[in-house]
Design a protein that fits this description.
The chain is an alpha+beta fold. It has a four-stranded mixed beta sheet, covered by helices on one side. A hairpin with a 2-residue loop joins strand 3 and strand 4. It has nine helices and four strands. The protein folds into two domains: about 70 residues, Glutaredoxin; about 150 residues, Glutathione S-transferase Yfyf (Class Pi), Chain A, domain 2 (Up-down Bundle). About 55% of the residues lie in helices and about 10% in strands. Bound molecules: glutathione. The site of glutathione has 10 residues, from helix 2.
């Protein structure tokens, strides 16, 4: 059986990482069973989750995992899509992964309240004497990543405005459809669901939750996928 290594369940989400949620959904779409483990990044080959173990083979990075399962198990997670639709789905997924996602983590790691109620808990399993030190180091490392990536050089208002435009774009593209690309779920639904569901987590203070909630099609979409994949 395939093992999916992630952070484990946090904040009411099946996993603390939307990338892990993407992989979990894509495995379900491929009809493959898996065991989900809360391993964290300590043994992750690229220092990030998700990574999977499949019959002794270790694959990290959600996109490489998707490619692995499509090749090995001869499934097409975009079955039924035209070449143009596949291109649109890929662009949409990468906008969400490489832009909207960074707003999600910027709002969680940079804001003191959001950090305390959220990512600070990623360190709870550490021995008490080490916990606050490792938590500080972890936050400093993430802050540096966000600075190098560029998002945290913007004001919070600009981060939310830019991410709000992503959310509005997803809402327009979804329209009245059941899934992002039509009546059937495809690969792109994995991350779009993962990131929207995380932005809706009520303990975090962010305008982006309200930005999603003004689009009833988006809240219905998140509810529909929660029911189908994680109920
Ligand atoms: N490109 C990677 C991104 C994965 C990623 O950024 N994972 C985050 C969690 S959402 C992580 O493991 N971060 C830990 C770290 O950077 O130390 C993928 O698609 O799997």
């Amino acid at each position: 059986m395939i093992i999916v290594h992630g952070f484990g369940a946090y904040f009411g989400m099946p996993d603390g990482s939307p990338f892990v949620m993407k992989t979990m959904i894509q495995l379900k779409l491929a009809g493959l069973e898996y065991e989900h483990r809360a391993s964290g990044v300590a043994k992750a080959p690229r220092g990030k989750v998700p990574y999977i173990e499949d019959d002794g083979e270790i694959i990290s990075d959600s996109t490489l995992i998707r490619r692995h399962i499509e090749r090995k198990y001869k499934v097409d997670l975009d079955a039924g899509l035209t070449v143009e639709q596949r291109a649109a789905a890929w662009s949409l997924e990468k906008m969400a992964e490489d832009h909207l996602y960074f707003a999600l983590i910027d709002l969680r790691w940079r804001d003191d309240h959001n950090f305390e109620v959220g990512p600070a808990h990623f360190f709870d399993r550490l021995p008490i004497l080490l916990r606050s030190l490792v938590r500080r180091i972890g936050r400093a490392r993430m802050t540096k990543t966000l600075y190098l990536q560029g998002t945290s050089r913007l004001s919070r208002a600009s981060v939310e405005e830019n991410a709000g435009a992503d959310i509005d774009a997803v809402a327009v593209l979804l329209g009245e459809r059941q899934y992002m690309m039509g009546d059937e779920a495809t690969a792109v639904d994995g991350f779009i669901y993962g990131v929207l569901a995380n932005l809706l987590v009520p303990i975090f203070e962010t305008d982006l939750r309200r930005r999603i909630e003004i689009h009833p099609n988006l809240t219905a979409y998140v509810e529909r996928l929660s029911q189908r994949f994680f109920s």
